[in-house]
Specification:
The structure holds two protein chains of two kinds. Chain A is mostly beta strands. Chain A is built from no helices and eleven strands. Chain B is 0% helix and 54% strand. The radius of gyration of chain B is 13 Å and the shape is globular. The chains are: A mainly beta, B mainly beta. Chains A and B meet through strand 4, strand 5 and strand 9 of A and strand 5, strand 9 and strand 10 of B.
């Protein structure tokens, strides 16, 4: 069964720092990997979807990379801003059901 | 952009009531899902559906049922609400095996 781990669980940084959030998974036979953002009390907003054949995806200040062989994905946030404060989750579908396993998330606070 | 709409943001119900949570998506996605999210437990899959009138149990289906009479609508039913069903409920849809789109969530409190 797929296991997904996100490290660190929480992060507090000053504005302007470049950040790396990590997502590790145990079963490398994945279809894709999706990163989400969740604001307190809200639903999940999709940030980036990386197909298994891709190595990375970029959207604005966000860059997500995927290394299937090592079972890792990283989400890079450039020049962090207070508005980036949220919980970031990764989701990894594998196996025959295509149902993803979600990580527990990294709670990010960017202070001015 | 795909839109997934959950009918209520906040809901307060009494123990024993039958509760309906509604979810509608506007992009003809085959797959729809219901999750609940609790602190320390993460997202847990309750039920999902691959097509109209089709449903599959997720990890925690006990105490819940679902209905999908039309492709765009997936309803979660709490047959007899209990306090341990107080939670954030999240609906999602997905085309094929591509990425999820989530609704904004329903915070349900059972008193």
């Amino acid at each position: 069964k797929q296991e997904v781990t996100q490290i660190p669980a929480a992060l507090s940084v000053p504005e302007g720092e470049n950040l790396v959030l990590n997502c590790s998974f145990t079963d490398s036979a994945i279809y894709n990997l999706q990163w989400f953002r969740q604001d307190p009390g809200k639903g999940l907003t999709s940030l980036l979807l990386i197909q298994s054949s891709q190595r990375e995806q970029t959207s604005g200040r966000l860059n997500a990379s995927l290394d299937k062989s090592s079972g890792r994905s990283t989400l890079y946030i450039a020049a962090s801003q207070p508005g980036d404060s949220a919980t970031y989750l990764c989701a990894v579908p594998s196996g025959g059901s295509y149902i993803p396993t979600f990580g527990r998330g990294t709670s990010l606070i960017v202070h001015p | 952009d795909v839109k997934v709409t959950q009918s209520s943001r906040y809901l307060v119900k009494r123990t024993g009531e039958k509760v309906f949570l509604e979810c509608v998506q506007d992009m003809d996605h085959e797959n729809m899902f219901w999750y609940r999210q609790d602190p320390g437990l993460g997202l847990r899959l309750i039920y999902f559906s691959y097509d109209v009138k089709m449903k599959e149990k997720g990890d925690i289906p006990e105490g819940y049922s679902v209905s999908r009479e039309k492709k765009e609508r997936f309803s979660l039913i709490l047959e007899s609400a209990s306090t341990n069903q107080t939670s954030m409920y999240l609906c999602a849809s997905r085309p094929g095996t591509l990425g999820y789109t989530f609704g904004s969530g329903t915070r349900l409190t059972v008193v």
